[in-house]
Amino acid sequence: MVDTPFFKLDHLTICHQNNDQKPIIDDVSFSLTQGQRLGLIGRSGCGKSVTSHAIMDILRPPLIRKQGQATLLGQDLFTLSLAEKRRVRGQGIFCIFQSPGSALHPALTIKQQMSEISTVTHQDKTTITDAIEYAFDRMQLPLRCLEQYPHHLSGGMKQRVLMAMALLLKPRLLIADEPTTGLDVLTERDVLSAMGIMLEETQSACLFISHDIRIVKKVCSDLLVMQDGKIVDRCTRDELTYRERAETTREIIDAMRVA
Amino acid sequence: MRNFILKRMATAIPTLLGMSMLGFFMVALTPGDPVEMELRRLGVIFTPDQVAALRQEYGLDQPIFKRYIDWLIRLFHLDMGQSIASGRSVLEEFKTHLPLTLTLASLSLALSILLSALFGITAALTRSQTLGNFVQFFSIFLVSIPSFWLALLLLFIFALSLEWISLLGSGAWYDLILPVFALSLGSAATMGRLMRDRILTVMSEDYIRLAIVKGLSPSLILRRHITKSILPPLITNWGVTFGALLGGSLIVENIFNLPGLGQMALQAVFERDFAILQAYLLFMGLIFFASNFIADLLNYWLTPHFRERTNSQGGAK
Amino acid sequence: MKILSMRATPLGLNAGIILIGCLLLIAFFGESFAPHDPNKMDLVRRLDGMSWTYPLGTDHLGRDVLSRLMSGTLLSLGAAIMTSMTILFIALPIGLISAMIGGWVNHLLMRITDIFLAFPMIIFSLVIIGFLGASLNSAIIGVALAWWPSLARLVHTLTTDALSKDFVLASRQCGISPLKLVIRHILPQILPPLFVIMSLEMASILLVLSSLSFLGIGAQPPEAEWGAMLNEARPFFTERPGLLLAPGLLISLAVMGFNLLGEGIRHKLDNRSPFRW
Predict the structure, then answer these.
(1) Which stretch of DSSP H or E encloses residue A30?
(2) pLDDT top residue among A241 and A105
(3) ipTM metric
(4) How far apart are the CA of A82 and the nearest CA of chain C, in angstroms?
(5) Within 10 Å of residue A147's Cβ, how many Cβ atoms?
(6) Within a domain: residue B188?
(7) B187-215 burial code (b ≥16 CB/10 A, e <16)
C-alpha cells in the first residue's frame, strides 16, 4: 500500500498534569492509509486506550497532551475550534470502546440513541429510520431491540449496536478499542464478523486496539506494538512469525502460543 | 401506574401509623395533667371528685391504647381538638394559616430549582477555573448564611437603605418577593452543589464519552443524556427540600411578619398550646409525606427505565 | 484504567481549618480576654456606635457587643458540640446494633428511623421544644431527637459495609465476641468517614440552633448566644441595624468554617474525572 496517508499522528506525548516525570505516551507516531486496518497491541496499561482518547481529544485531567499533531485529510485536529472538532467526531473519526455494558445510556431506548445520529448526519426522519433498519439488518440485530433499553441486551448485542451506529455515521476512521473484551469466544466471533461487514460497507480505515494478537491477526493487515507508551515494533501481518522481532512482540507471540 | 400508587400507599401505612403514634404519645406522655392544667387556667377551684369526673368526661381514665384509637378516629373526622389560646378549633386555625405557608414554600421551591440549575450547570460545565471556583465559593457562602440573617440583610438593603418597600409590608402579592428569596437562596445553593456533583459524576460515565464521540452537540448531550440521568435523584431531592422549606418558612414568616402556619406554631410554643403543636407536627409530616410521594410519582412517570422504585431516604433540614 | 489524582491541599480546606481554629481559640480564651464584662449594663450608653471603649458598640442595655460575642462563642459552639455528641450517642449504638444483629431488630429500628425522618427536621425540633418549654437545653434535645435518625442510618450503612470485609468475616468465623469485633474492627473503619460527615452536620446544627435561639425558643436572654443576641437586637433594627451585623456574620463564618472543612476533605477524596467536549 503506497497511498498517501490520510490520517497521521505525529510525536504524540502525554504526561501527568502535575509531575513531568516519565510520559504516559512517549513520542508516538503512525499513519493510516485509506481503508487500512492497523492493529495496536500491547499489554494492559501500556497506553493504548489513552492514545485513542488523545486522538479524539477527550483526554481527562490529570492527563494532558504535551506535544503532538493529528491530521485527518490535511486538517490539524488539535488546533480546531470546539465546533469544528465536533464536526470531525462521529463522521470523521468514531470510536467504539471496550466495556459495551456501560457504553450505552441506560435510560434511553436503543432507538433514541440510534436516531439522534441524524443530528450529526443531517438526515430527515424517514431516511434515518430506513438507515437504522438497514444497519440492524446488516448487524443481524432484531428490530424489536429498538424499543428496548440497554440492560435488556446482551454484551455482544450492545457491541453490535455500536457497530450499527458506525454504519450510520460512516466515519473515515474507526477506532475500535478492545471491542471484544469480556465477550465469550462465540460472541467475539459474531462481533468481529459484524465489524468486518461494517468496515467493508463504510470503507473506513480502522485502528484496532487489542491485547490479543490472535484477534489482531484476524482483523488487521499491519500492526504496531506498544510498550510503556512507546511504539517498539511495526510490521505487517505476514512478518509476525519471524523471530527477529522486538522483545515485546516476541513475548506476546510466545504468550499466545502457550495459551 | 395505579399499581405503583397502591403499592406505594401500602408500604407507607406503617410509617403513617407510626407518625400518628409519635404525635399522640408526645402529648400523652408530656408531664402535667391536662385536666388540672385546664382548670388552673380557668382559675376554678376544684375538688378531687370534680377532677375525676372531668377526667372521665375527657376519657382520660381509659387505658392509653384505647385513648389512642379514639383519638385516631377523631383525627379521621378532622377533629383535632381546640386551640387553648384562641378557643377556635384547630382545623379552623389551619384553614386560616395554611395557604400562605404553602404558597411561600412552593414559590421558594420553584425559585430554588431555577437558581440551582443555574448554579449547578455553570459550575459543572464551565472551562474557566476562575468562574468555577467563584461559583463554588459563592455557593458555600450562601449555604452558610443563616436564612434569618439573610432576611434581615435583605430588609436592611431594600427597606431601610433603598426604601423600595415598607418594613411592615403592604398586603400586596409582592410582599412575598423578599421572603421567597430569603428562603430560597440557601436551598438553591445546596441543590446547586448537588446538581454540579451529579453532572460531574454523570460526565465521567462511558455513555457520555460515546455521545461526545458520536459528534452530538453539547446542548443535546446536556438536554438529553445528562438531564435524563441526573433528574431522578434531583426530583427525589426536591421532595425532601420542600419539607425543609416548610420548616424554613417558620423563620421567614417570623421576620417578615407573615401570618402563616409557622407563626401559628411559634405562638403555640410560647402559649404551650399542645393541640396546635400536635396538629402542626402531624400536618407538616403529612404534607412532607405527600411531597415525597409526588416526587416518586414524577420519577416513575418520567423514567420508565427506573420503574423499580428507589427508596427516598434522608430527612429535611 | 484508574488514575488517582493527588491534588494539592485546596484553599478552602485551609481556610476552614483556620476559621475553626480561630473560633476555638476565642471559645476557650475569649471570656478572659474580653475588654468588658459581657453582662455589665451601662444604661447611659445604650445603643452606642463604634468607639475605642466599645469597639463594636453597645446593645440596648448598654452591654459591650464585642465582649458578648467573645464570651458567647463558647456557648454557641458548645451547644452545637453538645448536640452532635448527643446525636452520636443515640445514633451510634442504634446503627451498630441494627446492622450487626440484623433480622427483625434491624427491621424495627429502621422503621423507627423512617417515622422520625417523615417529619421536616426543624419542625420536629420546634414541636419538641414546645412540649418541653423554651430553653437552650430543650433546643439541644429537640435538635438531637430530630437529627439522630439520619445519622443512625448512616452508621448502619457504614457498619454493613465494614461487616462485609473479608477480614471481618474471618474473625467472626473464629468466634470473636461481638464487643471485641466492634472495638477492634468496626469502629476503626466507620469512625473516620463518620467524623467527616459530623463536620458537615455541625454546620447545619449550628444553623438550626442559632435559628431556634433567634426565634426566641432556644437560648434565652441574657445568655450571650449569637442567635439570642440577634433576637434581642431585633426591636432596634431600624434604630441601629449595625447591631444585627456582627452576630450574624460570626454565625455565618462559623458555619462556613465547618462546611469548608467537610467539603475540603471530601474534595480530597474525590477522584472523578469528567469527559469534556
Answers:
(1) strand A25-32
(2) A105
(3) 0.89
(4) 8
(5) 11
(6) yes
(7) bbbbbbbbbbbbbbbbbebbbbbbbbbbb
Give me the percent of chain A exceeding a pLDDT of 70. 94
CA distance C186 to C164: 10
Cα–Cα distance measured from residue C222 to residue C231, given in angstroms and rounded to the nearest whole number: 11
Classify residue B174: in a domain, yes or no: yes
Residue with cell 459474531: A190
Chain B residues within an 8 Å CB radius of C122: 244, 247-248, 250, 316-317
Task: Assess if residue B14 is contained within a domain.
Answer: no
Contact C149 B127 (CB under 8 A): no
Give the burial string for C114-144 (b: 16+ CB within 10 Å, else e): bbbbbbbbbbbbbbbbbbbebebebbbbbbb
Find cell 457498619 and name the residue: C159
Q: What are A's interface residues with B at a Cβ cutoff of 8 A?
A: 56, 58, 60, 86-91, 93-95, 97, 99, 102-108, 112, 116-117, 119-120, 149, 151, 162, 165, 169
Residue B127: CATH number of its domain: 1.10.3720.10
Q: Which of C42, B284, B231 is nearest to A107 (CA)?
A: B231
pLDDT value, residue C3: 31
Minimal-distance CA residue of chain A relative to B206: A103
pLDDT at C253 over 50: yes
Which residues, 6+ apart, have CB-to-CB distance to C165 below 8 Å? Answer: C185, C189
* A contacts of C275 (beta carbons < 8 Å): 58, 60
In chain C, residues with a C-beta closer than 8 Å to the C-beta of A17 are 5
Residue B213 in this model has a pLDDT that exceeds 70: yes
Residue A96 CB burial class (10 angstroms; 0-12, 13-18, ≥19): buried
Average pLDDT, chain C: 86
Provide mean pLDDT across the span A11-16: 88
Question: Could you tell me the three cell numbers for C251?
Answer: 454565625
Q: Contact B284/C134, CB-based, under 8 Å?
A: no
Q: How confident is the model at residue B314 (pLDDT cuts 50, 70, 90)?
A: very low
Tell whether the model's pLDDT for residue B113 goes beyond 80: yes
Q: Please tell me the class of the A7-256 domain.
A: alpha beta
- Are A163 and A96 in contact by the 8 Å Cβ rule? The answer is yes
Could you read off the pLDDT of B147-167 as tens digits, one per residue? 999 999 998 898 888 888 777
Judged on CB neighbours under 10 Å (0-12, 13-18, 19+), B77 is exposed
CA atoms within 13 A on the CB side of A238: 0
Query: For residues C12 and C263, is the Cβ–Cβ distance under 8 A?
Result: yes
Q: What pLDDT was estimated at residue B32?
A: 62
3-state secondary structure of A207: strand
pLDDT digits (tens, 9 = 90+) for C83-93: 999 999 999 99
Work out the pLDDT band at A1, boundaries 50, 70, 90: very low
Structural domains in chain B (count): 1
Residue of chain C nearest B241, judged by CA positions = C120
Per-residue pLDDT, A259:
45
pLDDT at C54 (0 to 100): 74
DSSP state of B106: H
- The angle subtended at Cα A32 by Cα A98 and Cα A88, nearest 5°, is 65
**Cα dihedral value C67, C69, C71, C77, nearest 10:** -170
Query: Which cell goes with C242?
Result: 449595625
Whether residue B39 has pLDDT greater than 90: no
Q: Read off the C-alpha cell for C266.
A: 471530601
Please provide the average confidence, as pLDDT, over all residues in chain A.
85
**Residue bearing the bigger pLDDT, B66 or B310:** B66
B262: containing domain: 96-272+295-316
* C235 reaches B (C-beta below 8 A): no
The pLDDT of residue C154: 93
The pLDDT of A206-211, averaged and rounded, is 90
Q: What is the spatial order of strands in the sheet that A205-210 belongs to? A: A93-96, A173-177, A205-210, A37-41, A222-227, A230-236
